[in-house]
Design brief:
The complex is a heterodimer of chains A (354) and B (505).
Chain A: H1 9-34, H2 39-51, H3 54-79, H4 87-105, H5 111-140, H6 144-166, H7 197-214, H8 216-226, H9 228-233, H10 238-265, H11 276-286, H12 291-314, H13 320-336, H14 342-353
Chain B: E1 3-14, E2 17-28, E3 32-37, H1 43-50, E4 58-63, E5 66-68, H2 73-78, E6 81-84, H3 96-101, H4 110-128, H5 143-156, E7 161-165, H6 173-188, E8 192-197, H7 200-206, E9 209-214, E10 217-223, H8 229-237, E11 255-265, E12 271-281, E13 285-289, H9 296-303, E14 311-316, E15 319-322, H10 329-335, E16 337-340, H11 344-348, H12 355-358, E17 370-371, E18 374-375, H13 377-390, H14 407-419, E19 425-429, H15 437-452, E20 456-460, H16 464-470, E21 473-478, E22 481-487, H17 492-499
Classes of the chains: A mainly alpha (354), B alpha/beta (505).
Chain lengths: 354, 505
Amino acid sequence: MRSRRPLPAWAEIVLLPLVNIALAFITVGIIVRIIGVDPLRALELLVVGAFGSPESIGYTLYYATNFIFTGLAVSVAFHGGLFNIGGEGQAYIGGLGCGLAVLALDRYLPIWLMIPVGIAAAALFGAAWAAVPAWLQAWRGSHIVITTIMFNFVAAALMVYLMVNVLIAPGSMTPQSRNFEPSAFMPAMGGNALNLSLVLALVCCVGVWGFLWHTPWGYALRTMGHNPEAAVYAGTDLRRMTMLGMCLSGALAGMVGVNELLGVHHRIVLDFPAGYGFAGIAVSLMGRNHPFGIVLAALLFGALQQGGAELSFDIPTINREMVVVIQGLVILFSGALVNLPRPWLQALLALRRS
Amino acid sequence: MTAAIELERIDKSFGSVHAVRGVSLSIEKGAITGIIGENGAGKSTLMSILYGLYHADAGAIRVDGKPVRMEGPHDAIAQGIGMVHQHFMLIDSFTVLENVVLGAEGGALLARGTAAARAELERLSRDYGLTVDPDALVSELSVGEQQRVEILKVLFRGARILILDEPSAVLTPQETDRLFRILATLKERGVTIVLITHKLREIMAATDCVYVMRQGQMVAERATAETHPEELAELMVGRKVRLQLDKTPPQAGEVRLGAEHLGLVDRRGVRLLDDINLELRAGEIVGIAGVSGNGQTELLQVLSGIRPPSSGTLTVCGRTVDAGHPGDPAEMRDLGLAHVPEDRLRQGMVAAFRASETSILGYHEQPQFSRNFLLRLQAVGAYCARLMERFDVRPRVPGLRSSSFSGGNQQKLVLAREMAQEPKVLLVGQPTRGVDIGAIEFIHRELVKSRDAGCAVLVVSVELDEILSLADRILVMFAGRIVGEVAGGADERTLGLMMAGAKAA
């Protein structure tokens, strides 16, 4: 219980995350060295792979889009004191909703109507999938962490069942739906996977920021997150606020389906959330639960995803699993061990001042 | 007489706050030494340094003449120093015995340690008159009993020097007297006692000598027999203080809040409130006296709409609430009922919020603060600045985190928020808990002013002095019931007996 001077804002927001990332990369460097690769060359390949060409930048931003959605999803719930581990399942079901809307309507609607309907369906289904655990916690006292985790499995199983038995394109051997009509293609930005979903993600950032800090509901949600007793005292209905926070969170996670299905796959496929939902927890944590920080963290994660893929392509000893290890270490240092360097920085800054 | 503890030129800063400035004091062996000062004067910080919770930036500590370094509470305990904290450090779901043993289990096998501990505990309870059932769960004990457990815990560890931080905050006058008798017994057996308090009465009643702190400095040392409360108050505050409150007789008007046969039963079937009948009229202050934990908290919760009653009816400004038609805090607020909660940090504010955000808690949906689905942050900031001006909240920075204000200023902010709405009914829980004398004066005057303006005020407080000076009528609660009513300014002993559950006269 030693008293320490809290870090100044700039150190908290800029310095601490940078130190975290540096620590992660040093650790990664040691591991890469052990398997016989020059760490500096690996780093160079990683950076060039992520930012070296317009194409690689496009992929980095495309991955970052998913991380922004899931990072925002986690942060909205977190501001309400709710730990939503179910981003993965909500993204999955959000994609299902988006896909169902498109399959039903893409032959009849023009693109300027089809895309918004697809987005709305993704949000609605994602929200609905989050609403069940929220309801279970609010009215039945089941803890949301447990139920959202379980709902990830339920979502995965449900999707496999639907894809294999119901939605599979007639005559197809792989479990995927028929191709969408071009009226449901999210307009691309540049040549590759990057599409207008990135703009949607940035709009969501502004929306979340505005909601949390500039609306009475955001105020009430944050009150609940910081101090539920004060929220009750203020007359906030915690059950309804839990529903609101989780539904918003689920809707944001569902947006991953828009980026993946409308933007890239152009049909419903299996396993498109690919861990974005879980990574969203780290993105949110690293971005200090603030939309602006989340954008930065999402960029880093997108770069790791893209650069890591290039890295494993160029250096055979660094295989796909090794890239996952690297990403895991960054998550470890910037998520779970986020407070590790704090005392050092505090001591350092105190030293400088005296 | 030799000194048990000597502190020499202790200095401690927290960031830009210089909490303790070059304080020296010497605590005599086998005596009761009082340390008095307003909240934020540095008393608790000083004692935390002595107990090893904080490290002094400069200065020396000597125990029995030998210089010591306090790296943590374990060092203090090893030196025979024990501390009873203002906020209890007990584990609710453990029994008394388990709490006492915690940290001193005496080996890997719990059973052997606890058997010895039980015998020791019974001896201590008997010797010092600290009766507590060793097998009761802490969560089931009253606050007063929990404090006894805290004292037992410290004695169990063989403390020779006992530091008590605001020990009487939760006790009836009789219990406080009893605590002082216990302290006297301990003193006879050679225990050195340090009593930290802001209550003058206790210093006068219990101590042998007293140190006065103000703004981090030691401003005076007096032998208790040679000083008087007025002098101490002046030393504490740094100016003349009026200890008496002036007020005119009440002009009671219509009934604003009425309760009939109000009852509250929790999920386990425990009766928390039982057949509560009360009337609160415009233009009067009704005080609820009682030992903490006798249903006052629950009464405030029910009256303010936080919990629905299990039975009976409650009428607030014409609206009737009962088990079938529960109210909620937002609705009560709309009816003109404002509520200053007992525990401002836990209920009345959000520590992480800016002061301006705290200043609209519960009123954030009013049109003056939100329009077209957006909060009007500028209006909120300006509103907060006005509240701060009117209630002298310092520092006057609406953007500052609520937790950065001192207790008194936090309380003034919460009070300002509730009173600014010009409510018809004002419920106030512990109006001056953790608030310094200067602010107490101010808060009391504001409450009387609001009464004179025609507000119906209900004050719940465990500070008997406060109830006696504020209230026009006093209701006494015991075990969830209202056991009696007396006029304001009644005799303290009669009230004390009623608070302890004796039959009302």
